[in-house]
Amino acid sequence: MLAIILYQNSYQLNEKSITISHQPNNLDAILAMPRHPLADGKPGVVIFLHGDGPINATHGGFYRPIWEALARSGFASLSWNKPGVGGAPGNWLQQSMDDRADEVVAAIHWIKGQPQLDGQRIALWAASQGGWVMPKVAVRYPDLCFMIAVSPAINWLQQGRYNTIASMKQQGRSQHEIDMELKRDRQVLSLLNNNASFEQYQKTQGDAADFTAERWHFVHKNYRADATQDLNAIRSPVFLALGGKDINVDINNTEQVYRQYLNRANKLEIKRYPQATHSMLEKSTEESFVKSGYKGLFFPRTIFYPGFLQDQQQFAWQHRDCQ
User: Of 69, 87, 196, 252, which cross-links 313 as Cys (Cβ 3.0–4.6 Å)?
Assistant: First the structure.
């Protein structure tokens, strides 16, 4: 059994820990190179932009099957610990989306200085909250090779309202309970709009106060996030992956806006995975600790929704020449 686990968790990648110079904090990163590079030159690089939360460079190993799929199309992958995660300097809860975009710019500069990498073929992969960072980078680097957007939202506040309603309905909560929670959300928004301190938030919300001081600061920095204007700057091909069982993001709204701003000839490819969740796992897998643990340990490439890895590999292959 140990041999099966080791075999299934061995990837056709060569991973190297690196440090990328950046202010105010250097980036503790991993460069995952294809173990068997293509014969037609140096690999391009896909930069990974995390979603919300304290995520390390591999996302607890979650990224490796994706890295391997991209490697088959001739791309290395670059990812880093969020500030404060895994011993990295800084604190990700002090960052704005613009701060995160600055990190990506530093990574692009680093890539362009590496002789073993093709600095003319740089792409982005963004999940969830990274969907606000990705278009900000495109504003500054419009000649990116391609972009892969997984479960991105458009507007922070709209996403929050959608998530509140969808998650409470899934829990079987009554309409009255939902209405009361939405009323509380409006009260919190009023506090944010009035630059209330964390102490003021605690005082007004009482037992409902579920933010930490750091999280309150993070939300205050970012709650006005909206990708719409920055999406208009994207000129690269985009692969948009959406899960039909996503209760975090309103996928209909996301698809509508992406089509409005990116539906140029051969520039936007959209895939809906009907039973996939926000994390691109099959709903039955995400809801079962036993099933998700079994797949993650014994068959990690199958933990994602069927077709998810193959579709990204094909998209990267089709756009590997960045034309």
Answer: 69
